[in-house]
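This follows on from our talk about sequence and fold. Please put the record directly below this note.
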Amino acid sequence: MIRPAADRKAVVTSADQLPEKGSALGDAVAKPSRGRQPRPLTKRQLDILRMIAQGRTTDEIGRQLDISKYTVRDHMLSIFTKLNAVNRAHAVAVAMREGLLR
């Protein structure tokens, strides 16, 4: 059953509605990932990151490297963590900015 609009949680639509700094939620939201240095990637992670930059899918990467798509996914999650990235495009952008990819 879909709840009426009045019962749904409000969506933040302006900066005035963001949690205040000093509150538990506000401090969590305020912590930027910038400034943290990316951790070194393994050779395999760099190979996968290059393939991501080429636009390859998880399945394609797995087939080319002869590994499971789930292993590729695990490597990608490690890459995202090490680069403080939230998705593939962000990981590639960070890697390019840090000189890991040309």
Q: What stands out?
A: Residues 43-97 form a domain with the Arc Repressor Mutant, subunit A fold (CATH 1.10.10.10). Residues 6-15, 25-33 have pLDDT under 50 and may be disordered.
